[in-house]
């Protein structure tokens, strides 16, 4: 395939999971701008989201489908019908420090979307949204080579052992969930060899505009929250993360 050739054509429908989230809403926005139609999954109906994109791109190009439980068997079977591409952005995140509350749900939800895509002949491409923390975390004064074989096993081990300081455990569990979610997705894809192309992206701390006031904003809201006196993110993340790259959310999308 030539570098400029696209697997999906304009007018195709693309499924974006978690379309009401910070990154998911930007992904949907970019796809619509590029001429694709978007079906977004949400936990519950979000009329404001439909209004946002209907007003910007016209009715008939964006629709939502409720998927209340990401790791329920067959959760995406209806939502995925007829789409040509899938961008899996949604994840189970509650900032719990208990690995049992997060990791199994993320893994099952990640594999769920692949199973659904394998049953839908129209799907040509699936992209899994992982995190840079799935590959590793920068350590001061330590040089490392990160490639497609790099996994943050230290986070996985620490998450299950609960060995990190209590205030850092939510971040460690998050990193472990992203590690295991992506790893198990690749494992399933290689073992089952479905008809579609699969890939993953590993964004870092995202910043930039929040498309609607109803969107909490994830990392994009942390600076504003800090100004309001909410220092949760500062306390939760290890100090070494300050050396990481900070991409703009639209570039990631």
Automatic annotation (TrEMBL):
Signal peptide coordinates: none
Pfam families associated with the record: Epimerase
Protein family according to the UniProt entry: Belongs to the NAD(P)-dependent epimerase/dehydratase family. Dihydroflavonol-4-reductase subfamily.
Protein name from the UniProt record: NAD-dependent epimerase/dehydratase domain-containing protein
Record domain NAD-dependent epimerase/dehydratase: where: 14-196
Domain of life: Eukaryota
UniProt keyword terms in alphabetical order: Oxidoreductase
Entry keyword annotation includes Heme: no
A single GO molecular function term of this UniProt record: oxidoreductase activity, acting on the CH-OH group of donors, NAD or NADP as acceptor
PANTHER family: ALDEHYDE REDUCTASE II (AFU_ORTHOLOGUE AFUA_1G11360), NAD DEPENDENT EPIMERASE/DEHYDRATASE
Organism per entry: Exophiala sideris
């Amino acid at each position: 395939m030539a570098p400029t050739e696209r697997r999906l054509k304009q007018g195709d429908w693309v499924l974006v999971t978690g379309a009401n989230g910070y990154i998911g809403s930007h992904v949907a926005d970019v796809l619509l701008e590029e001429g694709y139609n978007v079906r977004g999954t949400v936990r519950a109906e979000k009329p404001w989201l439909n209004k946002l994109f209907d007003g910007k791109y016209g009715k008939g190009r964006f629709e939502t489908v409720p998927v209340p439980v990401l790791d329920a068997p067959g959760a995406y079977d209806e939502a995925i019908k007829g789409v040509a591409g899938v961008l899996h952005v949604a994840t189970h995140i509650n900032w719990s420090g208990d690995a049992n509350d997060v990791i199994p749900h993320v893994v099952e939800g990640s594999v769920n979307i692949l199973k659904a895509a394998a049953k839908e002949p129209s799907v040509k491409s699936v992209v899994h949204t992982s995190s840079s923390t799935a590959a590793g975390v920068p350590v001061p004064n330590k040089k490392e080579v990160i490639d497609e074989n790099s996994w943050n096993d230290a986070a996985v081990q620490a998450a299950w052992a609960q060995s990190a300081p209590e205030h850092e455990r939510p971040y460690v569990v998050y990193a472990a969930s992203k590690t295991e979610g992506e790893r198990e997705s690749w494992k399933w894809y290689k073992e089952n060899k479905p008809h579609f192309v699969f890939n993953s992206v590993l964004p870092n701390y995202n910043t930039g505009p929040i498309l609607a006031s109803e969107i909490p904003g994830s990392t994009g809201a942390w600076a504003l929250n800090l100004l309001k006196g909410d220092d949760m993110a500062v306390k939760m993340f290890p100090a070494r993360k300050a050396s990481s790259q900070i991409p703009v959310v639209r570039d990631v999308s």
